[in-house]
Each structure stands twice: as structure tokens, then as C-alpha cells.
Design a protein that fits this description.
Layout (H helix, E strand, L loop, with lengths): L4 H20 L8 H32 L9 H4 L5 H9 L3 H14 L16 H8 L5 H12 L7 H16 L11 H15 L5 H10 L1 E4 L9 E4 L2 H14 L24 H18 L15 E2 L2 H6 L5 E2 L8 H9 L2 E7 L5 E8 L4 H11 L15 E4 L14 E4 L1 H5 L1 H4 L2 E5 L2 E5 L11 E2 L4 H10 L1
Antiparallel strand pairs: 1-2, 3-4, 5-6, 7-8, 9-10, 10-11
Organism: Microbacterium invictum
Protein name: HNH nuclease domain-containing protein
GO molecular function: endonuclease activity; nucleic acid binding; zinc ion binding
Length: 465
């Protein structure tokens, strides 16, 4: 007879009653803020205790699924390929949650003697005790165990246990500094600090493993793009995030005449993943234009996009890029052409080339410096991407007679340049000064406003007032 089934059934009924009363009676709306905080804290304790029970159950499921004979494993008898699938089916949690439960169980489950079958002490008994007491849940267990167990044989087990004891004391609010109980994130910081202090070999073993495991893979091409997966080394990730944070740090100041109404800068509705994608696009664009990369066929790495003249002029149809089977939109072709070189190839229908002409419409470095001095960075208010990472946009398209001149070029980041036609912002030049008009939903007044983030122009404006 399972002695746990009845208490768990009673617990489930009590929890169901509490949830129903809280959801239907409106009692939560009438409690004070201090009582509401206490309710949330008490529920968190109950959740951690339930997680402790789940970790123990998962640990036992894992033990029964580790037999040498596949047919004798619990997972096989229940028709699952592994423990993760069994957990997902029984608990209805997502795969990552099932994986976290297994990792927590490995860290704190008791050891069973192979000779006597008796229950022995867990590898980290202090951490297990804290879990059973409801002090830490799955998040806390992994926050403490993961960094310290990664030290492996480089740190003696007893020394590791001492470090765990100190961090567990911090989790209980009994640490040396007397601080309140720490959250899982802060426990991870504490455990990581101990791991670094105890690991005499430093970061070299971890770095060697990171170097072996590094890779970046482009998946099979789809109509929407290329899926990407991989493992990048910590310093590469840090550099990418440094560039990303710098690029998306809003610091632009709009330059407007005295007395003019200034709309609030728009909220960026891109997701974090979309912003990170655009950061990578910016990095690749800057690198390709830097002139320091190795050449390909005697020329710098160049994105070659082909499109027929009729489709380019009509704005409808398809463009094609080298190394990409999926067709591009005409808007994508125009984005590439706006800051690149156009090579016109006239050919007969049978493919014979009749004439080649090259039209350079790239702003030179002197023009770019001047435009950067005038604009400061991407001119869309609230963007904040600096000049060095921005592209130069022909306000009047080159195909429509717009010159490659400072009076016709403005700085735009990759995102605003690529999607300018669809995001609602309008740009014009007024006596050589760029002006923007916000989308109607942001600013119903059809006002054109001069903009800059150039420190020189902003300081001159302040001195004039």
C-alpha cells in the first residue's frame, strides 16, 4: 500500500479549494497589501515543498530507469523512450522543466547502497535538507549545485560541501552578513563566486571545453530565412551583447526649433530576438564595409543581388542573392542598392551579354565623416545607434535622380534603413538639413522636425538660446 497516495490526494483537494476560493470569491481584492505579500510568500513556500516532493519522485523514477536491461526499465514498461518523456507525459510540463527536475534530482537525491540497498546520505546533504525544509526549490537547488559541481575533481568533496553550507545559510537568511534569505539568482552569484575561489586551475579547463564545443550552424533554408543554432564562447557572447547593448541604448536627443511640439519617441516593438538579429546584421554590414576583411575574387566581401530593371522600377517581383536560394523582395534589393554599387548588365533574352556599365553610388569616407558630424547617428528619434554602425540612406533614390551628395544622405541604422517604407517614418532634406515626420499614430500633426544627435550641433543650439 502506498502511504503517500492518501496525503497527496488530500493536499490536492485542499489546494483546489484554495484556488477556487481565491479565483471566484474576489477575496484577493479585499486584502491589504501586507496580507497579499504574506499570501504570495506562503504560496511560494508551499510551491517549494511540492517541488521537493517532485524532485524526490523524479529521482526514484530515474533510479528505476537506469537498469542495464532496457526492457526492465520503468520508462520502457510505460512506453517512453527516456525519463524526460515520462515526466512530460505525467506532469504536463515542458521539456526544459522536465530536464531541470532531473538535474535537481541528480544533485540532491540520496545514494542507495549497491550491496545492502539501504538509503545513504546525499552527495550534498546540506542542500537536500534545505530543499526538504522548503527553503529552496528547483531554481535554488540548481543555482547552488550547478556552479559548485562543475569544479569536478579539481576541488575536494569536503571543501565543496563547506561552500554549499555557506551558500545554504545565505538561502536561509543565516549567512555571515545577516542578510535576508536570498533569491535563486543571488544564490547563483554566491555559488559561482565560491566555485571560482575554490577552483585553483582557474578558467582554463572550462575554456578548453568551451573551445571544443564552439560551433555555429546555419540550418536548411526555409521561405522565411535560415534557422541558426550553435554554441559561442563566453567572450564572443560577451562582445556581441556589449555591441547589442550599446546599439540599443536609447540616448538620442531630438533637435527642434524653439516652441515646437515634440512627440514622445516611439516604443520599439521588436522582440529581444529580433533586436539581436539586427545587431548581428549591423556587425556584418560594418565588417564587410571596413575594407580589412580578406578579399574574394580580388574584391571585398560583397552581397550580390540581381533583379530585372522592370521589376526594380515597378517595385513588384523578385530579387536574388548569391548563396541564397529563396528570392528576396524588391525592398530588400533597394536596401542593398541604396548604399552599394549598381552594375547594369544588358543581355538578350537568350542570355548573351550585350553591355556592362557600373554606377558607383557609395558615399566616400569624406562625405560619411561630414554626414556623421551633422547627424550624430541614426536620425530616427529614440533610436540611438551611433554613426559608426549606421548606413547612409539616399533620401531621394538614386534611381530617381537623387545624387550621392551630403545634401541627399542621412544616417540610418540597419533596422530603420531596411524597413523605412513599412514603419511609417518619413524623411526629407531642407536646405541640407534632415527632417523627419513621425507616423500618424505617434504624432497626428503633419510636422516636419529637424533632428540630430551630434554633440556639436546640440551644443551650438544650447549656446544660441
Amino acid at each position: 500500500m502506498n502511504t503517500l497516495s492518501a496525503p497527496i490526494a488530500d493536499l490536492q483537494q485542499q489546494a483546489a479549494q484554495v484556488v477556487r476560493e481565491g479565483a471566484t470569491s474576489g477575496v484577493l481584492q479585499g486584502v491589504s497589501e501586507s496580507e497579499l505579500a504574506n499570501i504570495l510568500s506562503d504560496l511560494a513556500v508551499a510551491q517549494r515543498l511540492v517541488e521537493a516532493a517532485m524532485v524526490d519522485v523524479v529521482g526514484e523514477v530515474m533510479r528505476r530507469s537506469e537498469g542495464a536491461f532496457v526492457a526492465d526499465r520503468m520508462t520502457s514498461r510505460m512506453g517512453c523512450r527516456n525519463v524526460g518523456e515520462l515526466i512530460e507525459r505525467l506532469t504536463r510540463v515542458a521539456g526544459p522543466t522536465a530536464s531541470r527536475l532531473q538535474k535537481a534530482a541528480k544533485a540532491v537525491r540520496p545514494v542507495i547502497s549497491g550491496t545492502t540497498g539501504e538509503l545513504l546520505e546525499a552527495e550534498l546533504p546540506e542542500l537536500r535538507e534545505a530543499m526538504v525544509d522548503g527553503v529552496v526549490g528547483v531554481d535554488g537547488v540548481l543555482a547552488i549545485a550547478t556552479p559548485l559541481k562543475e569544479t569536478g575533481r579539481r576541488v575536494p568533496h569536503e571543501v565543496r560541501r563547506q561552500a554549499v553550507s555557506v551558500v545554504v545559510a545565505e538561502a536561509r537568511g543565516e549567512g555571515p552578513d545577516g542578510s535576508p534569505p536570498l533569491s535563486a539568482d543571488l544564490l547563483r552569484v554566491q555559488a559561482s563566486a565560491w566555485a571560482l575561489a575554490l577552483d585553483q586551475d582557474g578558467a582554463e579547463p572550462r575554456e578548453r571545453a568551451s573551445a571544443r564545443k564552439r560551433f555555429l550552424r546555419l540550418g536548411a533554408e526555409t521561405p522565411y530565412g535560415f534557422p541558426v543554432n550553435g554554441m559561442i564562447m563566453p567572450e564572443v557572447a560577451a562582445l556581441l551583447m556589449r555591441v547589442h547593448n550599446a546599439q540599443h541604448s536609447p540616448r538620442s536627443v531630438e533637435f527642434v526649433p524653439d516652441g515646437a511640439d515634440v512627440p514622445e519617441p516611439p516604443r520599439d516593438d521588436r522582440t529581444h530576438g529580433q533586436k539581436l538579429h539586427d545587431t548581428l546584421a549591423t556587425v556584418l554590414q560594418v565588417a564587410a564595409a571596413s575594407g580589412v576583411l580578406p578579399t574574394i575574387g580580388g574584391a571585398a566581401p560583397t552581397l550580390v543581388v540581381s533583379v530585372t530593371e522592370e521589376e526594380l522600377e515597378s517595385g513588384r517581383g523578385y530579387a536574388h542573392a548569391e548563396d541564397c536560394e529563396q528570392p528576396l523582395s524588391i525592398a530588400a534589393a533597394l536596401h542593398v542598392a541604396c548604399s552599394g554599387v549598381i552594375q547594369r548588365v544588358v543581355s538578350r533574352r537568350d542570355g548573351r551579354i550585350l553591355r556592362i556599365s557600373v554606377e558607383d553610388r557609395v558615399f566616400n569616407r569624406y562625405q560619411r565623416r561630414a554626414i556623421a558630424l551633422r547627424d550624430g547617428g541614426c536620425i530616427i528619434p529614440g533610436c540611438g545607434v551611433p554613426a559608426a554602425w549606421s548606413e547612409i540612406h539616399h533620401v531621394v533614390e538614386h534611381a530617381k535622380g537623387g545624387p550621392t551628395h551630403t545634401d541627399n544622405g542621412v544616417l540610418l541604422c540597419w533596422y530603420h534603413h531596411r524597413f523605412l517604407e513599412s514603419i511609417g517614418w518619413k524623411i526629407r532634406m531642407n536646405a541640407g538639413v534632415p527632417e523627419v515626420r513621425a507616423p500618424y499614430w505617434l504624432d497626428p500633426s503633419p510636422k516636419w522636425r529637424p533632428v540630430t544627435t551630434s554633440p556639436t550641433r546640440l551644443r551650438s543650439k544650447v549656446l544660441q538660446t
